[in-house]
């Protein structure tokens, strides 16, 4: 009972600030304190939302953005995770790569847009490359840090038990470094959503980023709000579902990611 009350209390605290923001929004829009062009009233946003649902445009933009986000994220994870393992097992490789990696980490992905267009064209390649650049480093750095923080006494115990390198990796390194790896993947996925807007400003004709940019050009503030709310809601939903799935699959990481 006490655990249920604690869970309810945490949920109430998380919902308090959004509820206050929602109340303030309703007050300033329904009383006419602000220009409806700057902050459209809920009725206008609701009508635009229903219209976009009925004509299928919102669903189309969401599906295209989801495809780009997932492709970019999995590409980044497919590069970052093996590279982190290689840098852990071969410290000399880490020393050679550190300069270039630090340079790229401190370069905003949006600054690379002109080069990405030159190298990959204005199609999907440049958009995916931008998302990969944005979410690569949280995954790589957290994974490498997690591997480096594994207790060396556990590795020594594995050597005492005559475990092979593969067995040590599977039974000691991975379980110990898993919370950091999953934290990196979680952060990387969040960064992929952040990069989506910049990616879909590169000669895109669809996607939530394109929807927001096109609505701005057409002075449709209500559609801008719909695009922003769609990105935030989808990000929250997928983060929540992924966390619940991970906690069920790996119960020992609860509270560590």
List keywords for this structure.
single chain, 257 residues, mainly alpha, MetI-like fold, 2 domains, 10 helices, 80% helix, 0% strand, globular, transmembrane
Structure overview:
It holds the Pfam family BPD_transp_1. It is found in: Cell membrane. The chain crosses the membrane at residues 15-33, 45-64, 70-91, 103-122, 128-147, 191-212, 224-241. Belongs to the binding-protein-dependent transport system permease family. This protein is mainly alpha-helical. The protein has 2 domains: 1-34; 40-249, MetI-like fold. It has helices spanning 2-30, 42-54, 57-89, 91-105, 113-120, 124-148, 152-160, 165-199, 208-217, 221-249. The protein starts with a helix and ends in an 8-residue tail after the last helix. The mean pLDDT is 84.
């Amino acid at each position: 009972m006490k655990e249920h009350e604690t869970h309810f209390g945490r949920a109430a605290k998380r919902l308090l600030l959004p509820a206050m923001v929602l109340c303030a929004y309703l007050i300033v829009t329904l009383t006419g304190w602000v220009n409806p062009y700057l902050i459209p009233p809920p009725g206008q946003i609701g009508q635009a939302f229903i219209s976009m649902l009925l004509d299928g445009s919102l669903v189309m933009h969401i599906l295209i953005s989801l495809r780009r986000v997932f492709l970019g994220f999995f590409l980044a994870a497919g590069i970052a995770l093996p590279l982190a393992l290689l840098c852990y097992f071969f410290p000399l490789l880490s020393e050679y790569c550190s300069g270039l990696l630090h340079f790229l980490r401190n370069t905003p992905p949006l600054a690379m847009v002109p080069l990405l267009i030159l190298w990959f064209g204005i199609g999907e390649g440049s958009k995916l490359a931008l998302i990969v650049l944005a979410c690569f480093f949280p995954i790589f750095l957290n994974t490498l840090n997690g591997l480096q923080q594994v207790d060396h006494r556990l590795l020594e115990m594995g050597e005492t038990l005559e475990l092979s390198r593969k067995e040590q990796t599977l039974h000691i390194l991975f379980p110990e470094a898993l919370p950091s790896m999953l934290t990196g993947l979680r952060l990387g996925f969040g960064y992929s959503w952040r990069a989506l807007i910049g990616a879909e400003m590169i000669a895109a004709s669809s996607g939530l980023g394109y929807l927001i940019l096109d609505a701005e050009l057409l002075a449709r503030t209500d559609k801008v709000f719909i695009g922003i709310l769609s990105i935030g809601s989808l990000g929250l939903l997928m983060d929540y579902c992924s966390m619940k799935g991970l906690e069920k699959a790996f119960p020992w990481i609860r509270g560590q990611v």
